[in-house]
Amino acid sequence: MTGAGISTESGIPDYRGPGGVWRRDPDHEKLVTIDYYLADPDIRRRSWEYRRASPARDAEPNAAHRALVELERAGRLDRLITQNVDGLHLKAGSDPERVLELHGNMFGVLCLGCGARSSLEEALARIDAGEQDPACLACGGILKTTTVMFGENLSQDVIAEAAEAAERAEVFVAVGTSLQVMPAASLAALAERNGARLIIVNAEPTPYDELAAEVIRDPIGEAVPRLVARLMA
Ligand code: ZN
Q1: CA 39 to ligand 1 center in whole angstroms
Q2: Which amino acids are annotated catalytic?
Q3: Tens digit of pLDDT for each residue in 128-145?
Q4: DSSP classification of residue 148
Q5: CATH number of the domain that 179 lies in?
């Protein structure tokens, strides 16, 4: 299971960390809160610009993402649960059937009216061509990225599949996650309770360090390839 920490070496700052220009916008939370998004075309316009400015659009997977692809190809990775919406596991080549994106993916777009699927790049191209708030071409409905916004529920199917994977895991590795956000935190505990060896790779302490068989504090881009080599041996 991975969190924001695996993507910082790809140039994507942890949104909980200090600094980002969008965090200084007092309205930032509105841009990613479903009720405001549905109610206000201006919030939608700014939300698309927020996605446009995301460093994830140009980011490349790093050594840690690539090592997890190797682990999968060696037949040792059952499911890859991620809290990230940056799509970097898929870009690295992880099997989409095995990747469970708890908070969705920012590169997909969904019509809230008819369910039609399109892409972020298509929406941004329409904005570049002069539309302020591109609506669904099929039904006129509101479009939004396939990320889970504040006020929306996570996919119950994704959570159920992640929980099943945690229950059957022999080894559960938590990488770059503070294990303070649900359901990620409960998945680590569930795996440990069901007999998994819990390995935590994170620069900062987590509430589950005491439960872990192993805690690794080294930089993720070095620690994960080393760990993967060990798990494949
Ligand atoms: Zn539609």
Answers
A1: 17
A2: 103
A3: 999 989 999 999 999 999
A4: P
A5: 3.40.50.1220
